Amino acid sequence: MRGERKKLGLGVVGAGMAAKPHALALNALRDRVSVRGVWRRNRPELEAFCAEYDFPAAPDYEALLADPEIDAILVLTPPNARESIAAAAAGAGKHVLMEKPVERTTEAAERIIANCEKEGVTLGIMFQHRFRAASKALAAKVAGDELGALHAVHLVVPWWRPQEGYYDQPGRGSFAQDGGGVLITQAIHSLDLMLSLAGPVSAVTALAATTGLHRMETEDFVAGGLEFANGAVGALMATTANYPGGAESLTFNFDKATATLTGGNLTLDWVDGRRETVGEASKGGGGADPMAFPFDWHMAQIADFADAVQNGRQPLSTGRTALAVHRLIDALIRSGREGRRVEV
């Protein structure tokens, strides 16, 4: 039919724990996105996943890259597997949408980003917290300069992950697979959202540690002070040692109002006494089940990526925007390790 939008052809690599909200989102987007094939190394688990969500199973990754109807690859593997997968996709002219983080290290992330730019393909990184209704409402007010100057930011991520069933999984909480602990695996979403609303951080002073509640190689607790490039100051606390886990909160103190994002809800307390709320009833994945959240945010971000590819623009969350949060995490960990103020 004339004028009908062509669906984005998509190949999916990886079908583990992180794949469920993506699968639900892709099924809800069948009028916009066509899943042409899914591949993962474990064949029985691949077939079970494809049967559950009615997706075709691919014989191997090469088959996805060779399919001329596939425009983009969605990469849902652990971070340690992404660089070669992204390089092969870019080399085949496929656009790339990847789970966060970009990779385990900032250096590897920079290589992925540079390679996608060299090959002329779009790179998007999944930071779905930007796509919550509350986040978008606050972003619009910040962009419209409705709140005045920003002076202070407070971020708390009081999450819980159990040793059994989570950190006892092979590679979980290790540098070799994940690249780090609570910052790069859990709090990275809130850190990205914070930077998207407050602007870049110029320097940090932090403490990073592993509590006695977990047996893991990387950190499960970080606290720190933040100095923003615009002159604002801030503080953060992020942990996976806070049983039973709670919703993350992000508070911004502006001239005209204090804005608080708690999970999927926004409260604006205006200095003239008004209170304004934008919200959605949802869980946030802060407890023992990391996937206890709706798929609406994934759906909105995948739709944004598809529109970006089809209209030749950059998506809202790119490899370049993701580098800012990678560099912030590096600075926080370095500050905690060296016991000093570190510039980002």
UniProtKB/TrEMBL annotation:
InterPro entries assigned to the protein according to its UniProt record, in alphabetical order: Gfo/Idh/MocA-like_OxRdtase_N (IPR000683), Gfo/Idh/MocA_Oxidoreductase (IPR052515), GFO_IDH_MocA-like_dom (IPR055170), NAD(P)-bd_dom_sf (IPR036291)
Domain GFO/IDH/MocA-like oxidoreductase: 138-258
SUPFAM superfamilies from the UniProt entry: Glyceraldehyde-3-phosphate dehydrogenase-like, C-terminal domain, NAD(P)-binding Rossmann-fold domains
Pfam families noted in UniProt: GFO_IDH_MocA, GFO_IDH_MocA_C3
Gene3D superfamilies: Dihydrodipicolinate Reductase, domain 2, NAD(P)-binding Rossmann-like Domain
Domain of life: Bacteria
Name this protein carries in UniProt: Gfo/Idh/MocA family protein
PANTHER family according to UniProt: D-GLUCOSIDE 3-DEHYDROGENASE, UDP-N-ACETYL-2-AMINO-2-DEOXY-D-GLUCURONATE OXIDASE
Lineage of source species: Bacteria, Pseudomonadati, Pseudomonadota, Alphaproteobacteria, Hyphomicrobiales
Limits of the Gfo/Idh/MocA-like oxidoreductase N-terminal domain: 10-125
